[in-house]
Amino acid sequence: MKKHHITLSVNGDEYDALVEPQQTLLDTLRDTLMLTGTKEGCATGDCGACSVIVDGTLQCACLMLGVEANGAKVETIEGMAKGDKLHPLQKAILEHNGLQCGICTPGVLIAAKALLDRNPDPTETETRFWLAGNLCRCTGYDKLIKSVLVAAKEMRGA
Known about the structure:
The chain has about 160 residues and is α+β, with helices and mostly antiparallel strands.
């Protein structure tokens, strides 16, 4: 099968890749670019584990083809921390015990970042609605929601 050449920006770094026509963005990130932070949960877009931000829009990387990301700006979990300095969302989730097994955590963090990029002062209801596409079987969500609201407050400087 003929591979297609794509170029994309991931977390501010430029990449060139050869991808098969049916290869998902998730597989492109994990298998071709070796960025394994984004997880595969369901491969059907139902769990949110593979959430990434593509050109400012939250996407399930398992539902997008790698060739569709040609020329795109992609943000993944690997781009949240700056060296040893955690993003406020990462810090809040750690401090408020908002994670357990960790499978959903990268997708939740990316979805929460997309929310706060769009709305820096969400209500609890808005946060719950926004994160409804991210399934977590361990935490019960309350600590995740609290973590996002604490991080939002810190990021606003409130």
